[in-house]
């Protein structure tokens, strides 16, 4: 079932969003975020980052992914997402858990054993 969500912009015009399309776009971004968290966790573990530097590396990689998604969607990002802030903050903690899992595993495999 396709539902259409409507909102009113600052200029007063009504904008309609397809709920299934927005859900699909967010799902694609979540997949990218999970993959990015795993890959950057592997990189941080292999590089031997520890402590605060490792967490800063995660924040940097999340920010770079956010910029890449905005660049890919171009100036018409409103066609694909409701707002930009949700692109940055959705599934942030889930990605952090994935990052820490891969980070600690590869750090232990490369630098401890």
TrEMBL record:
Instruction: Give membrane topology per the record.
Output: Multi-pass membrane protein
Which biological processes are named by the entry's GO terms?
A: autophagosome assembly; protein folding in endoplasmic reticulum; tail-anchored membrane protein insertion into ER membrane
Where does this polypeptide localize? Endoplasmic reticulum membrane
Q: InterPro entries this protein is in?
A: Emc6, EMC6-like
Family under the similarity heading = Belongs to the EMC6 family.
One GO cellular component assignment for this chain's record is:
EMC complex
Keywords of the record, alphabetical order, are: Endoplasmic reticulum, Membrane, Transmembrane, Transmembrane helix
- Which stretches are transmembrane? 55-71, 92-110
| Name the UniProt record assigns to this protein | ER membrane protein complex subunit 6
Principal location: endoplasmic reticulum
The record's annotation in Pfam families points to: EMC6 (PF07019)
A Gene Ontology molecular-function term?
membrane insertase activity
